[in-house]
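Blinded run. Sample ID left blank on purpose so nobody reads anything into the name before looking at the predicted structure. Input follows.
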Amino acid sequence: MENIIEKIKQLAHAQREEVIEWRRWMHRHPDLSQEEYGTMAFVAERLREMGLEPKTGIGKTGVMAMLNGELEEESGKSYCVALRSDYDALPITECTGLPFASEKPGVMHACGHDMHTCSLLGAAKILVQLREHLRGSIMFIFEPSEEKYPGGARMMMEDGLFADVMPNEIYSFHCLPEMDFGRVGMKKGKYMASTDELYWTVKGRGGHGATPHLNVDPIVVASHIVVALQQVVSRNAAPMSPTVLTIGKIEDVGGRTNITPEVVKMEGIIRSFDPEWRLRTHELIRKISTGVAEAMGAECDLFVDEGYPPVINDDDCTEWLDLRMTAEDFAFYQQKIPGCYFRIGIHEPGTPFSNLHRPNLVVDERSLELASGLIAYNAIKALENRIKQNQT
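Blinded prediction complete.
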């Protein structure tokens, strides 16, 4: 494998400027979830230039391409490794000041998906040039709508992504701004949390703000619900079971300085790692919310929009990295296929740090060369390891 590693390094370095230009084009032309038609066309065209035949429109705006290696197992059965990236942007106004900043007002690649996609395109170009070393096939998945329910992974699979070929393993990664360029992180087992969105409607009785005794103030009721819900984590979650409950939005319907509104709406998330505890949190949140409202003379309706399951990395593919309370629809693939989700550092040492989903996120573009090479190597290594396992 040492010879292959050197070839991969050489190819990744030779195409470095091209991959960076791809990424800058994507950064200038971001597409929101389920609207990625321009991105889909761009990715498909790059794949065609490599000699691949991409399928487009999977899950509405997704792309998939297959690369068959020239080395086959003696059994004649082709082992398939899938490589996945995501490519939707976020409704955020960019303030980086970069010369290739977003040209779409209010839309930005603030989660690094442009970096993910172009790194995978770079890996694809490397693997096409090394297809004589591939002991099986590679499936390239370019996924839309990771940022928006129901998630591009589910949408693509329901639209027949694996109808012709079911991969044996799947790999993906996410850039990590708090990790310096040149570092890579992996972790066995549980890595990223499940996520569910929560929507409350608190119904009271509106009226004049100067006659509170005649009203049922939904703002006060909602405030008590928010405080009471802190018990879900602090007094119900086991200390060894990481859980996050966040209420991110509260708004009244029709209130003013002197008007008590009829309704208050709230939105939030619940994230955890244990499937049974995940369902238990829904029950607790519902009981606490409705109970507090009823005790104060109001009503509360709760809608739980079940989102992505937890990301659980296969032990055979992975090494160590800390747990994160972020979530990823890559977990839907892992429910069907063993896989690994890892991290690549994008922070330039000595520069200010900006987190994901922030308008000033900046990527150290050297990470594209590293990511392209690492993804390509992982694919070749995965195929080689499976051959060795079959021979023992």
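Unblinding after everyone has recorded impressions. The radius of gyration is 24 Å.
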